[in-house]
Each structure stands twice: as structure tokens, then as C-alpha cells.
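Chain particulars:
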Amino acid sequence: MTGPAADLVVTGARLRDGRVVDVHCAGGRVRALPPAGEVAVPPGATVLAADGGLVTEPFVDAHLHLDKVRTLPLVGDAALLAYTADGMAASAAGIDLAREVKRHYTVERLLPPVRQALADGLTHGVLHVQAFADVDTAAGLIGVQAVLAAREEFRGRVDVSVVAFPQDGVLRDPGAADLVEEALAAGADVVGGIPWIEESHADQAAHVEWACALAARQGRRVAMLTDDAPDPRHRTTQLLAEAMLRSGLTGRGVACHARALGHYDDDRLDAVLALAARARLGLVSDPHTGSVALPVERAVAAGCAVALGQDDIEDAYYPFGRHNLLEVAFLAAHLLDLRSRPQQELLVDLVTTSAARVLGLPGYGLRVGGPADLLVHEAARTVDLLARHAPPRAVVRAGRVLAGG
């Protein structure tokens, strides 16, 4: 987007707190939120009629393996079956089998589906993405290069934070740690990790320490996949929170999956969640991509910032997905037993305001003085927003209509 943003007024906007207002935007910011019809529309302003439909912040995808989008046909179902079978007991084996897909990697092959995933997300109101891209000795930097190229294409429309992600570990895959640093030098934003995949507890701890030390040294955030199996012996979420506190990374870390926490006893779970809250470690759950999930409501009650993520789109771990976070929230309503009205509001939080907290997004929020980034929905009720999980009528970024209208 270039040039100054035109004035925009969204009339008859129903906010999630029940108020119906007009949203006055100028210079790419929200300038006023008066009750509907109370303040005249400025001459020359573009008018977008919400007609009482909900108007929300844009959606935030805190966990998407963007380089892997639509690669399932290249590898077949073996990894998918191993990852999901027997209550995810063999999830590590699934990851090893999925490595096979990388022999097909080229930037030219990966870029079109990466580009399409971001375009589909934009249509569904996803304007912020934490995108994991594999860096390992099988694929080198090809996945990162494809994601960085797409990030530039979508700059100004979709914010893409690129995680340099050593999918096969750093001790199990010698050379991957150096590739992470190369990816950061090439333009990746976040130090990635997957400590639970390492062979021993000592190696898992070393993986966490390496990532946090690198993030602290370079002034980066850190994002890891932790405890992605139903095994209560896993404790890499705890290790990450502890290392963040030691490394001065408070509020600058994310743990995705953390599925093993669902198999902790209550006292241990409470202790780990309290530690995560103290470290301001954001937690991301993807309940649709596996049969075990982080106890989301317990994490929220403990004061943790929690998000839902798309995680995968037609890859070796999940055969569906269209980068629609309302669809993810709808699935989570069933998988996590979140059906009451307050729980419905929580589900929307998990893909908007709470997800923004997970990623530490500055300035996010639909408020006077905030960015003129918003979604206009057909649904007037949260229950319909979730049940229909339809694309927004309009997607607005910095006061400009990017989709719909």
C-alpha cells in the first residue's frame, strides 16, 4: 500500500461489547467511535455500512507451518498416519517420516502455495501470521527463502513474522543450529526450536538453552514447539519458561502445542502454568491437528496469554485447512468443549486479542487511536460468527479495504 490512507467511516458497527457505533478512520488510525448516527460522516469519506454486523480486530495466526502448505501430495499418508495414530503416541516417528518431503523442495515449487495460503488468510481476515519455516540439513534454507519472498509480496497487507525452525532438532541434526543463524541473517525474525524431539532430557535442555541464548544475544523473540505428545514425562514447556526468565526474555517467547500438559496432574499443571505466566510465555493450541491438547481454559485462568493457530494446511501432519481462524475456533469449540456464551467469546479472543498478546503485537486493538485495521462481518452475534465461520464482508487495513467491501 502506498500514499496516505483515505478517510473511512464504518457505520452501524456492532462491537463485541454490544455497542453499536460508527468507526471513524483517518490517516490509517481510528479517530472516533461515537454511537451510530451521532456524528456526521466527513465530506469525501468512504462509507462502509456494517448494518449492525459485528466489527472486530483482524485475526492473528500464531502458528502456521507456511513452507509446508499443500505438500501432502509430495509425501503421502505415512507420516500423517504415524503422527496421529494411537493418541499421538508415535508423533516423533511421524516427524521423521515427514522429512522425506524436503527432497522435493525448491523455492519455485513452494512459493505458489505459500502465496495462496496468505491470500486465503487475507480473504478470511488473517492479517498477522507467525510463520514457521524449516531450516535443517535436509532442506537448507529453501523453505525460509520461499516464505521470505512471500512476506515481501504481502508487505503492507499481511504481517508475516518468520520463525527459523529447526524441525529435526539441533542435536539430532548437526548443522541445523548454524542454519538457523544463517536464516536470521537472511531476514528471518524469530529463533525457532523443537526441544522435545531431542533424544534425551539433557539434549532437550541443551536445545532450549541454545535457542534462548541466541535470541537474547541477537535481541530476538523465541518460538518453540514443546511437548507435542501425550507423555507426562515431557517438560520442555517448563524448561522454556525457566530459560526465558534466566535469559532476560520475559514476554518474548511462545510455546506451541504443549500437549503433554493435558496429561499432568493438577498440582504439576498449576505449577507449570504459574511459571509460564511469570515468564509471560505465550501458549498456542492447535487441537484440530492432534487428539491431545493443552488445557486452554486452565491456562487462561492462570493468567497466560493463549492463542489458537492454524498449524498446518494439507501437509504431512493435517490434510485439511484453508487458513480460516474462525473455522479453527469452531473446531476448538467441539474439541475443547467450549460452547457456552462466555466460552464463545473466549474462542474469538483466542484468534484476536489474546493471540495478539501471545505474539506481543504492538498497538493491536480496535480502539480510538489504534490502527484502522478491522473486519466487518455479516454475523451480528458471536454464536453465528463461529457457527458460520464465513469470510468477513470487508477486510480493512490502515483504513483501506483490502477484501470485500
User: Anything to note?
Assistant: The chain has 14 helices and 16 strands.
